[in-house]
Amino acid sequence: MKELEERIRQDGTVKPGNVLKVDAFLNHQCDVSLFDQMGAAWAEHFAGKRITKILTIEASGIGIACMAARHFGNVPVVFAKKAQSINLDGDQYTTTVYSFTKQKEFPVIVSKKYLEAGDRVLLIDDFLANGKALRGLIALCEAAGASVEGIGIAVEKGFQGGGDKLREEGYDVDSLAIVESMDPETGRIEFR
Ligand code: 5GP
What we know:
By secondary structure, the chain is of the alpha/beta class. Helix content is about 30%, strand content about 30%. Belongs to the purine/pyrimidine phosphoribosyltransferase family. Xpt subfamily.
């Protein structure tokens, strides 16, 4: 998606350790109009998949998932929680994910009430690097007996390989910007 690539070039900063910082419009301040365009792009790509639910992971996935839902007939958006809480009562599916940015493991939890057999799920997340976060969401869907109909990603770092592995396994991954290389010295970003 051209608008997203342009925005990354304009406002993104390349940090050491293969981290792209896009706080200006995605991970801290939110550009709702851009989110809306992203939702429209995913709706076009996943048209005909009869999505019944969007599943994402807190926190940065929530905004883009909610905007996307407006383009999928206002289907419910469920966000997996990263910490146990007293608000999470009763039965839940839980798995563990290794965080690329925080470099530690954390739990990923969803209540059985909100993810069910028969759900046709679109997974949405802000970034795709090695694919660990998505593997966690896929595991939750498998545990629930829900089918993963597609994966919508804002920014994929193609050089980290997580997206291509998922595509090889048959998942329909639609990343709106795929970074092929980025250089923390010069700040230069190349897209696929
Ligand atoms: P993965 O699990 O695919 O290795 O990494 C994806 C998750 O890590 C995303 O949910 C995102 O929160 C975070 N992440 C990975 N790489 C980056 C990055 O370069 N920039 C930002 N802002 N988040 C990232």
